[in-house]
From TrEMBL:
<feature type="domain" description="ABC3 transporter permease C-terminal">
    <location>
        <begin position="734"/>
        <end position="849"/>
    </location>
</feature>
<feature type="domain" description="MacB-like periplasmic core">
    <location>
        <begin position="19"/>
        <end position="236"/>
    </location>
</feature>
<keyword id="KW-1003">Cell membrane</keyword>
<feature type="transmembrane region" description="Helical">
    <location>
        <begin position="730"/>
        <end position="755"/>
    </location>
</feature>
<dbReference type="Pfam" id="PF12704">
    <property type="entry name" value="MacB_PCD"/>
</dbReference>
<dbReference type="Pfam" id="PF02687">
    <property type="entry name" value="FtsX"/>
</dbReference>
<feature type="compositionally biased region" description="Low complexity">
    <location>
        <begin position="88"/>
        <end position="103"/>
    </location>
</feature>
<protein>
    <submittedName>
        <fullName>FtsX-like permease family protein</fullName>
    </submittedName>
</protein>
<feature type="transmembrane region" description="Helical">
    <location>
        <begin position="268"/>
        <end position="294"/>
    </location>
</feature>
<dbReference type="InterPro" id="IPR050250">
    <property type="entry name" value="Macrolide_Exporter_MacB"/>
</dbReference>
<feature type="transmembrane region" description="Helical">
    <location>
        <begin position="410"/>
        <end position="431"/>
    </location>
</feature>
<feature type="domain" description="MacB-like periplasmic core">
    <location>
        <begin position="498"/>
        <end position="695"/>
    </location>
</feature>
<feature type="transmembrane region" description="Helical">
    <location>
        <begin position="443"/>
        <end position="474"/>
    </location>
</feature>
<feature type="region of interest" description="Disordered">
    <location>
        <begin position="59"/>
        <end position="103"/>
    </location>
</feature>
<feature type="transmembrane region" description="Helical">
    <location>
        <begin position="820"/>
        <end position="840"/>
    </location>
</feature>
<keyword id="KW-1133">Transmembrane helix</keyword>
<dbReference type="InterPro" id="IPR003838">
    <property type="entry name" value="ABC3_permease_C"/>
</dbReference>
């Protein structure tokens, strides 16, 4: 009880000094809890949606998938006879056929895309009674004929649509126009899909190509019949294995699985950044308690002198850490819920709608947040607590402070150097790996070892690096600069720990910047060498190019040729008797001009001959395939062909790496017309001297189809750079949390350092140091610590990034580019971070009363 009272008294006596450490705990816990609440809320939203839209039993084509966007542009179907058979099964109360396709685009009269802006699907379907489970008609009426349609309320609000407006639906079967006669609103949250409805006959004809087909059958169970029993009855009626049957619970699970991988990636990525913030926070907490222990040396000596044991002193410090972790974690859990709501608002502005009505806070979320915050805080405070317990009463009463352990410092330096050396060796081994897959593990090991090594050897590095930085930065400020340098060097362990906190975040920034820049430079270099086409046409959301858009491209004036490019599913049997599922690139013969592929043997142009193909050199090596070999190719949904290998291409590229080419006409010969995939991408070459005119003509030709982009090589490179840049900006934004915590660490270190040096500051003021000079000294000390952390972080990050690029070179990304503008900007920005961090500590130091400071204990 005495230990608890002492800890409570010390904690609240130094609550101001604890505040920044508590903020670091709060931020880290908030990020963890916010991530968990946000992803749980998304899961709840999708679960409610799937539960509301699922029939008691759903019958689908055998190969149908919840998120399927078939390359043919036509969804998998089942015949109307399946509906009649299912309707006749025992226990069926009602049955209706559904038609749905996500390979559509809906535009208004201005050719503006009415689809979701966040990449969510645009779905065209027939209106059925089953839809009333999740939706209600809030205006107008359901479609009754080929010229009528209904839209969902969210899409109507987003694009200011109203009854009477005319919309055009673009499908692989053609374009058709209808007027809005009704608006249906979701009873549950719609995460972002745009949905249009037609009557059943129109949906069949316009989306599937003919009547008499459905994409699913929805069955409602009679009273007293379970979903599972109904499923068994229907399976017996239709024939086992003929179709895919799912109960409502199974359909919900399938839907969840279709979005689960995306949600998991988001969840674990954000938790990873939260982990980085926790790691940085550890340095802040260690520094805080180390300095508090040093400032309470005499107090600890008195406690020991009156009978407190080492364990009690140790326990007293750990109890303070427990209180800090508890209060910081409690506030962090609350802040996490607020953060989740903020993330939901941000996602809503991007098109992914989430409602606070679905806000999900599981009991595990605050428990995880509290445990993490408290455990991390107590572990971080363990070493300072242990040092406090080692202080002898007489040494403490003499104000000797914590004992300097030269032997421990030497051991620490040796361990740090050994780990750093081992990490450097791992990075070297990764850079010279033969395969990217095997080198990735060695790279990860090198990253961990060098990071830990730099953290441990930080005090040793501080002694040297700070002196170098001081010569370049501080000496110009005269005696004040030299005082700042000495202050930074006074306690290398503290400076090393403070700089290490900033080092971690900036190392990750530098690494990702190098990797991102190298990827862009490599892709750009590869495009310059390989791509001969003037123009590239593709959809931004991965949809196939509908035939009417492809025809418009072919008819564009000023174009020398247009190249088709389709991806065909097939099973290939090689001469060694092995069979594997592969994607065949079925392209026009002109593709050999549009993409300059290096061949190991044979001629690529001959691969576009009758019943011919090419393979990559890795595939050829693995399966003992040579030019002239015959491969058995079973086209999915079509017939089996025997194709002769006319060329083997080099896989030393990142464009179409490992591609197997054949002629479009070959695929068409072995596939039924309705199973031939649509173009996933198209290429065009302008007539000599007409590139500018052809570019404008292509854009005009595709104006009615806003889902497709026409790009020349300059546009394509810029788009690639922008995409990688956006991804990096998101990552930098998440890493900003770790950097904010690191800045708090600098602020706390300086603030506690000012308290620790109160008498010294008073004496300096007494002998003539002005307030302005004092504030400048503290600011310069902060700047040099920040630059020390930045220099270590950027150097470490660039070594990681350079090694990662060497591995990527094995996958065709062979250009290393160091983004010096970014690196220099970050380094200079670190100086401003140091200035910002010193504002409050410098202001408080300047306000000290000189006599009071001199008289302080």
């Amino acid at each position: 009880m005495t230990v608890l009272k002492t800890s409570m008294r010390n904690f609240f006596a130094h609550k101001g000094r604890m505040a920044l450490s508590a903020v670091a705990v709060l931020l880290s816990v908030a990020f963890v809890c916010g991530t968990l609440v946000f992803t749980d809320t998304m899961n709840t939203t999708f679960d409610k949606l799937f539960a509301a839209t699922s029939a008691d039993v759903t019958v689908s084509p055998k190969n149908a998938k919840p998120d399927d966007r078939p390359q043919t542009g036509r969804p998998e179907t089942l015949p109307a006879s399946a509906l009649e058979k299912a309707r006749g099964a025992a226990g069926v109360k009602s049955a209706e056929g559904g038609v749905s396709s996500s390979s559509v685009t809906v535009v208004n009269t201005e050719n503006e895309n009415m689809g979701s802006s966040n990449g969510g699907p645009t779905i065209a379907a027939n209106w059925t009674a089953n839809d009333l489970k999740a939706m209600e008609i809030t205006s107008g009426h359901a479609p009754r004929g080929p010229t009528e349609m209904m839209v969902d309320g969210d899409t109507a609000d987003k694009h200011d649509l109203k009854i009477g407006d005319e919309l055009r639906t673009i499908a692989v079967t053609g374009d058709f126009t209808a007027k809005i006669t009704g608006i249906a609103s979701f009873k549950v949250t719609n995460p972002g899909a745009a949905i249009v409805y037609f009557d059943t006959a129109t949906a069949q004809r316009e989306l599937l190509g003919r009547t008499g087909l459905f994409t699913n059958v929805s069955l409602t169970a009679a009273d007293g019949v379970s979903d599972e029993q109904l499923k068994q009855n229907v399976a017996a009626k239709l024939g086992a294995g003929t179709y895919k049957l799912e109960t409502a619970a199974e359909a919900k699970d399938s839907g969840r699985d279709s979005v689960g991988s995306f949600l998991d990636v988001m969840k674990y990525a954000m938790l990873g950044f939260a982990g980085v913030a926790f790691l940085v926070g550890i340095f802040l907490i260690v520094n805080t308690f180390s300095m508090l222990v040093a400032q309470r040396t005499r107090e600890i000596g008195l406690m020991r002198a009156i009978g407190s044991s080492r364990k009690q002193v140790n326990r007293s410090v750990l109890v303070e850490a427990l209180l800090l972790g508890f209060f910081g974690s409690v506030l962090g859990v609350g802040a996490g819920v607020g953060l989740a709501v903020g993330l939901m608002k941000i996602m809503g502005s991007m098109g992914l709608e989430l409602s606070t009505d679905d806000l999900t806070v599981k009991w595990t979320t605050p428990v995880v947040g509290m445990l993490l915050g408290i455990v991390v805080t107590v572990l971080a405070a363990y070493l300072p607590a242990r040092r406090a317990g080692k202080i002898s009463p007489m040494a403490a009463l003499r104000d000797a402070g914590t004992p300097a352990d030269g032997k421990a410092g030497l051991v620490r330096a040796i361990i740090g150097l050994v780990l750093t050396g081992a990490g450097a060796a791992s990075l070297y081994a990764a850079a010279h790996a033969d395969k990217a897959s095997s080198g990735a593990g060695v790279l990860a090991l090198g990253v961990v070892l060098t990071l830990i090594g730099f953290v441990i050897v930080g005090p040793l590095l501080a002694s040297g690096v700070v002196r170098v930085i001081s010569v370049l930065v501080l000496r110009m400020f005269g005696p004040v600069g030299r005082l700042a340098e000495r202050n930074a060097l006074r306690n290398p362990r503290r400076t090393g720990a403070t700089g290490a906190a900033l080092m971690i975040g900036l190392a990750l920034v530098a690494c990702l910047a190098v990797v991102g820049s190298s990827m862009v430079a490599s892709a750009t270099d590869e495009l310059d060498k390989s791509v001969g086409a003037d123009f590239i046409v593709q959809a931004g959301n991965g949809q196939p190019i509908v035939p009417q858009a492809a025809d418009a491209l072919r008819k564009t004036p000023g174009i020398a040729h247009v190249t088709d490019y389709k991806s065909v599913d097939a099973k290939i049997t090689t001469p060694d008797g092995k069979t594997s599922s592969e994607d065949l690139a079925a392209a026009s013969p002109t593709y050999a001009q549009d993409l300059r592929r290096e061949t190991v043997s044979g001629k690529l142009s001959e691969a576009y001959g009758k019943d011919a193909m090419s393979v990559g050199d890795k595939f050829a090596e693995d399966h003992n395939v040579k030019v002239g070999s015959t491969l058995t190719v079973a086209f999915k949904g079509g017939r089996t062909a025997h194709l002769k290998v006319a060329a083997i291409t080099s896989d030393d590229t990142n464009v179409d790496k490992g591609a197997k080419y054949t002629n479009v006409t070959t695929a068409q010969r072995y596939l039924p017309a309705d199973r031939v995939p649509q173009n996933m991408i198209m290429f065009a070459k302008a007539e000599d001297g007409k590139a500018k005119e052809a570019y404008a003509s292509l854009k005009a030709a595709l104006k009615p189809y806003p889902q497709y982009k026409v790009q020349d090589q300059t546009d394509f490179k810029k788009d690639l750079k922008d995409q990688i840049g956006q991804l990096l900006n998101i990552v930098y934004g998440l890493l900003a949390l770790a950097i904010i915590v690191a800045v708090l660490g600098v602020v706390n270190t300086l603030a506690l350092s000012v308290v620790e040096r109160t008498r010294e500051i008073g004496l300096m003021r007494a002998i003539g140091l002005s307030r302005r000079q004092l504030r400048r000294m503290i600011r310069l000390e902060s700047v040099v610590i920040a630059l020390f952390g930045a220099l270590l972080g950027l150097g470490l990050g660039m070594s990681w990034g350079t090694t990662a690029q060497k591995l990527l070179a094995l996958e065709g990304l062979g250009v290393l580019e160091i983004p010096w503008p970014t690196i220099i900007t970050v380094f200079v920005g670190s100086a401003f971070v140091g200035l910002f961090a010193a504002l409050v500590p410098a202001f408080r130091a300047g306000r000290m009363n000189v006599l009071g400071a001199i008289a302080s204990e």
